[in-house]
Design goal:
The complex is a heterodimer of chains A (152) and B (345).
Chain A lengths: L4 E5 L2 E5 L4 E3 L3 E7 L2 E6 L1 H7 L2 E6 L5 E3 L6 E5 L2 E5 L5 E6 L1 H5 L3 H4 L8 E5 L6 H25 L1
Antiparallel strand pairs in A: 1-2, 3-4, 4-5, 5-11, 6-8, 7-10, 8-9, 10-11
Chain B lengths: L1 E2 L2 E6 L6 H15 L4 E6 L10 H8 L4 E5 L3 H10 L5 E2 L7 H17 L10 E6 L6 H14 L5 E2 L1 H4 L5 H5 L4 H12 L5 H6 L11 E2 L9 H5 L5 E3 L5 E3 L11 H5 L5 E2 L6 H4 L10 E2 L1 H4 L7 H15 L13 H17 L2
Parallel strand pairs in B: 2-3, 2-4, 4-6, 5-6
Antiparallel strand pairs in B: 1-7, 8-11, 9-10
Helix pairs in contact in B: 1-5
Classes of the chains: A alpha+beta (152), B alpha/beta (345).
Chain lengths: 152, 345
């Protein structure tokens, strides 16, 4: 395996391993069986969220979802967000370890802190393509975050 | 025995955020020794079911009441109203600067339009947002100020101890020190059976609208718009949230169509929907847009989309804008879009 890529969020270095694929929703996907992918938050997402306190799914396992469908909620020390799938596909099962204690997302976001297993129906990004996407979207992302901070 | 007392009830945060837990504990501990003040802890106000002992306790509190919660004061006040914990609105000075600036406008609106609450007893209920400050001392100072403001009022202490809810059910709320101790044991994973017995029953996260009757004009837009049977009317033909558990988790559509912004979803991420008057500092950032949500639509567009989504999930037909939206509103939207188009962004 080659060296992981990284993306600089200001001074913070978000590591983007290239042993897996990605989605524009800031999630990674790694094949765990035929047509079956584990999905988790990238270092970029975890950095924005920081300490996660709450995670709840609003759909059942084995649910077919469309792109941008809300499938749950997450809350951290710094932020709240709805949860969205990496794209259209089918959510197969949730990581049981996170159901009682979501802090695994912070401890091992690329490992045991995976979120759910998923059968994607759309194309995925390579690590290079994801970093490219991060580069192009960073200005907008900062504006989105700072816009909210200034309003409050 | 007549006593002059103010009761402070801390509505605990959802989840076990250690920072929030600590602030709750600091405030409770400091108030334990405060003369003229009773302090107690209950689970999160919004999540308690109608017959939860925490709500029975709240309903049994006589006299002036201060409720500290992780909710906008408006959301807390009308959630209390809905559960039958009523009183005249006590004004807290503990607000963020932005909120102060808008206060006068708010009061004007209230005086003009709202149908108001009913059966309001002669006492004050103060709702204070725990997000106003990170320092327990600020809350203690405000509690003292309120206690000083209300020294004249007297209540019969014994009248509520003997009431209908069984005293033993409510005993735990009268022993805040013991409850805090049990909570610490629970958080560290060492709770004994005795500890668990003094903690309130578990609550899950709930989702339903709360009506602010100081703004609500009884226009019935919400009952026309919601197709899930959440709303109803009472014997006086006043709108009410009748079937709160029919409400669709995450859907705030009725709040968006309410012309008076009187429908609060206390757990929604958007401050205006969650009951913010101004903005409270230290609010959480909403990352939904980055993580895949869409945005940039009008409130009615969003409401129609949210409602259609829930209808389809229920196996029903989407209705778009054909049901429950006044023609006037639709015309206004068309005009707005035309105006925007004319600007040629």
């Amino acid at each position: 395996m080659s060296e992981p890529l990284c993306f600089m969020m200001g001074l913070f270095k978000a590591v983007i391993p290239n042993d897996r694929q990605y989605s524009r929703r800031h999630l990674w996907l790694q094949e765990s069986g035929p047509g079956r992918y584990r999905v988790g938050f990238t270092a970029y997402s975890v950095r924005l969220l920081q300490d996660v306190y709450f995670l709840e799914w609003s759909i059942d396992p084995e649910t077919v979802v469309r792109d941008q469908q809300e499938i749950g909620e997450i809350e951290s020390a710094k932020a709240v967000s709805s949860m969205f799938p990496p794209g259209a596909g089918k959510v197969l099962s949730f990581n049981p370890q996170l159901l009682n204690d979501p802090s695994g997302i912070n401890a091992q976001n690329y490992g045991s802190g995976w979120l759910y297993e998923f059968e994607p129906a759309a194309n995925l990004l390579s690590a290079e393509e994801y970093v490219e996407f991060l580069n192009s979207a960073w200005q907008d992302a900062q504006r989105t975050i700072k816009g909210q901070v200034n309003e409050s | 025995m007549a006593v002059s007392k103010v009761t402070v009830v801390i509505s605990q945060g959802q989840g076990r955020n250690p920072v929030r837990r600590q602030l709750e504990e600091d405030i409770a501990t400091m108030l334990l020794t405060e003369p003229g003040v009773d302090v107690s802890l209950v689970p999160h106000l919004y999540d308690m079911s109608h017959d939860h002992t925490g709500l029975l306790f709240l309903r049994s509190v006589p006299g002036n009441l201060i409720v500290l919660s992780w909710l906008y004061d408006r959301a807390a006040r009308w959630t209390l109203d809905r559960t039958g914990v009523r009183g005249h609105e006590g004004l807290s000075l503990l607000k963020s600067a932005e909120e102060d600036a808008e206060d006068e406008d708010e009061n004007d609106v209230v005086a003009k339009n709202g149908i108001g609450s009913v059966n309001v007893p002669n006492r004050r209920v103060y709702a204070i947002d725990l997000r106003c400050s990170a320092k327990a001392e600020d809350f203690i100072r405000e509690v003292r100020r309120i206690a000083g403001e209300n020294t004249v009022q007297t209540v019969e202490l014994m009248s509520w101890i003997g009431g209908t809810p069984k005293p033993e059910q409510l005993q735990r709320y009268l022993q805040p020190e013991r409850m805090l101790e049990a909570r610490r044991a629970f958080d560290s994973g060492h709770a004994t059976l005795e500890d668990k017995a003094v903690l309130p029953e578990d609550t899950g996260r709930r989702w339903y609208p709360v009506i602010d009757y100081s703004r609500c004009t009884n226009c019935m837009e919400c009952i026309d718009f919601c197709l899930f049977g959440v709303y109803g009317v009472d014997a006086l033909d006043r709108i009410l949230v009748e079937q709160q558990d029919s409400c669709k988790k995450g859907c705030p559509a009725c709040s968006r169509v309410c012309p008076e912004n009187a429908i609060i979803f206390p757990q929604h991420k958007t401050p205006a929907i969650a009951g913010a008057q101004g903005e409270v500092g230290g609010l959480k950032i909403d990352l939904s847009k980055l993580f895949g949500g869409d945005s940039g639509e009008s409130a009615i567009d969003m409401a129609v989309k949210e409602r259609d989504r829930e209808l389809i999930l229920d196996g029903r037909e989407a209705v778009g804008t054909s049901v429950g939206i006044k023609q006037k509103v639709r015309d206004e939207i068309d005009q707005l879009i035309a105006d925007l188009d004319a600007l040629e962004f």
